[in-house]
């Protein structure tokens, strides 16, 4: 499970995105930016997965594996 700091980082990243953003996931469903932030703040299963996706992206970006 992500740490408090990791949830906070994911929340800040989503807050910086465009209001019209829609996140689509085959296994989680579709979420607006605000819905994603609510899940991250709640630290529920969806918020945990969205945070893990953000962390994976940042780690991959850092390591330039894409």
Fold blueprint:
Elements: H1 4-15, E1 22-25, E2 29-32, H2 33-42, H3 45-63
Antiparallel strand pairs: 1-2
Helix pairs in contact: 1-2, 1-3, 2-3
Global morphology: globular
Count the DSSP helices.
3
Q: Which band does the percent of strand residues land in?
A: 5-15%
Instruction: Label the structural class.
Output: alpha+beta
Describe this entry's structure for a reader:
The chain is of the alpha+beta class and 66 residues long. The chain has one domain. Helices cover 62% and strands 12% of the residues. A two-stranded antiparallel sheet has the order 1-2. Strand 1 (22-25) and strand 2 (29-32) form a beta hairpin. The longest helix has 19 residues, at 45-63. It is globular. The N and C termini lie far apart (25 Å).
Descriptive labels:
66 residues, alpha+beta, two-stranded antiparallel ribbon, 3 helices, 62% helix, globular
Short overview:
This protein is an alpha+beta fold and 66 residues long. The chain has helices spanning 4-15, 33-42, 45-63; strands spanning 22-25, 29-32.
